Amino acid sequence: MLQRVERVLEEYEFKFIGLDGSLKRNMGMEIENRDFEALKEEVTWLLRPGSRVSFKEEALRLSEEFMLVFPVLAALVQKARATYLEIDGVDYLLLGWDNNNGSVRGWLNRLEDPESHPYELLAEHELLLRNVGGIKENFNLFSESLSDNQEWMFLGSECSLGLGDYEDYYEMMCEDAGFDQIDSSDYLVFAEEANGARTMYDRRDGKVYLFSHDHSFDHVEVLNGQPEYSFQTFKGISGFVDYIEELALQWGRDD
User: Fold this and answer.
1) Less Cβ around it within 10 Å: N or C end of the chain?
2) Tens of pLDDT along 200-234?
3) Domain locations in the chain?
4) Distances, alpha carbon 124 to alpha carbons 6, 9, 66, 187, in Å
5) Residue 44: half-sphere exposure toward Cβ, Cα within 13 Å
6) pLDDT tens profile 56-112
């Protein structure tokens, strides 16, 4: 175990920032942080040789509005071990929980400047980002969830409008099946899976949809009047707040 720790300390530069912004010396803090250790083990591509990591002494504070709008998520976050850190100049919030088998599951949330968001977001989406940021990485949840295989979730800087590269595919599918196309130009993509599936909401009413050209999910249904491998709805989920709260329920089940 000592050999592994020495290797980590040689490859990465760690700093610890106090509440007053001063540099603190606390050798071993990176070793004692089980959540960060689990993150490194599960998300092996996160750190590169020479990466710089700064831990910050900050306390997690949730607004009253956040707790009212997202009560399930707020309860989940309040149970977490919260670590504020900076990795290669990017600010993050690491949230960690214990699994029943003693391992750690968690989210690495990126904290962004609202100015980096290229599109107007729902008020509830902005509220989420102001309090806990968007999910850049998630790890070690052993049950199925909405976060499975997601490249990112909720990050304002990653959001896009419409179907993008899938516009031609969708037009072809509708023509072949004889369906009318949905105008998705105001649908904001807030999560993207590794296989290209996109989760989005209509900015006019907040309703949530999945657009997937290839899936085997059992928690979605084909949107009425649409080709099978195009727009789907989530069972039991209508709007963006419903989606967030269902995600929080799923992540709280292994407590």
Assistant:
1) N
2) 999 999 999 999 988 667 889 999 999 999 999 99
3) 2-141, 158-242
4) 44, 40, 9, 15
5) 1
6) 989 999 999 999 999 999 999 999 999 999 999 999 999 999 999 999 999 999 999
